[in-house]
Amino acid sequence: MKSILCISRHSPYGNALAREALEAVLAAAAFEQNIALLLMDDGVWQLKDQQQPLAGIQKSVARNLSALEMFGIETVYAHQPSAHQRGLSAQAICIDTVQWLTDDQVRQLISQHDHLLSF
Amino acid sequence: MKFTLVILGAPYGDSASQSALAFAQAALADGHSIYRLFFYADGVYNATRLAAPPQDEHDLPACWTQLIKQHQLDAVVCIAAALRRGVLDPTEAKRYQKSNDNLAPEFELSGLGQLIEASAVSDRVLTFGP
Predict the structure, then answer these.
(1) Rounded to two decimals, what is the model's pTM?
(2) B78 is catalytic
(3) ipTM entry
């Protein structure tokens, strides 16, 4: 089986890419594929706690992130320098399955996977 | 090399669709094969047959349909992404009681499973997005 790394680089509510990236990850997990998710650049904002999407207008990205564990994705990777640059605290995040990675560790993660899906 | 291309950008919205088209043309001209084109997110807008760009502009949707026909490419449009953006084939138009459909006949609506399956069998998966 080929392994896929999905890199999600967009903020949760500015456009639909964050949510549609998560839908692709959930679909791959549902098909029992080897898939991992890496949040970087503005994508780390998806981890912010206390998200308050507009009821009936926006679906919660935080809720989709927390669903990953049920689909067997026990770790969500996130780029620590992206969070640091944006002042996002590792304490103020919405899921507890995050593993923070340095630049080097991101490089390693990318090289460990057969395919990249970049959103 | 066997490629799958994921297109996330609408025609004219950003350069993603044009870049993907140029890559596909170059790869095929160079003897590579394209296992699947997968249109997702705003990329589904590439599949409407109702686009009518001004005559002095590059007709990107027409270039896609021509390439797909010429090389008999498998062009899949994510059904969930397409339905919420109003890109419908006749079956879905009927199902949701819409007055018309607009999916160009060179494309097919299907699920994200088609992207997953394509990544399993392709040597490279390339994403073209904003």
Answers:
(1) 0.94
(2) yes
(3) 0.91
